[in-house]
Amino acid sequence: MIEVKPATPLQDTVELRRQIISTCLFLRDRLGYFIGTWGNISVRVEDGLLLTPSRMAYHELRPEDLVVVSWGSAVVKGHRLPTSEMALHHALMLERPGFGALIHAHSPYASVVASAHRSIPVIVDDMAEVIGGEVRCSRYVSAGRHKEMAQAARETIGKEACAVLLGNHGVVAGGRNLEEALVAVQFVEKAAVILIQAESLGGAVPIPEPLWREERHRYLYKYGRPEDMRGVITDGTGTG
After folding, report:
1. Phi-psi region for residue 184, left (φ > 0), alpha (ψ -120 to 50) or beta?
2. Which residue segments constitute the domains of the chain, with CATH numbers given?
3. Which residue of 1, 16, 35, 191 has the lowest C-beta tally within 10 Å?
4. Global pTM exceeds 0.85
């Protein structure tokens, strides 16, 4: 297993709350992954989880509308109800301390795969890097059974993949921070599109596990650092 260091809780600032709101609007207006009031975000903060509120239109959100919920599931800051899928975020954050943020979306192709109760194997390199494993699909649990849905997702996600499909529902994708979670949810959608379309060519060929693990390790610990380019660029003497 490739170790991911525990995420550092962030300070609950107005700037962070504005970033969450702008991400919600991007997911709705640019990507179409959030529809109506369906979709939610959490970020790990010093007092617990900073969450989007329940049943509020994204364009109406103000920083003060977001809610902080403790690890004991108590609202410690905010005047709104937290998202009705709070338990889902809570369970996955507890299961995976490397997550600093989670996005629950209803992106179309990931929802197609979830409705077929299929998993998405590691089929493209960006999925290997950012998602880091097969995205499994949990059993269907109706939306009002909050704790049961959360438990199903927690049991299904495993210890490595940064996303899980919710049967007949949607997807939850996480990252070390909100920016990475946003990239992750897009790569799950891309992989779902590839998986579905590859069926017409006989099916997608998964990347062998040793190779996707190599990609994941590189992304976490080498990508963007000098050691990633060792032997590729020279030191000026032509010796590498």
Report:
1. alpha
2. 14-224 (3.40.225.10)
3. 1
4. yes
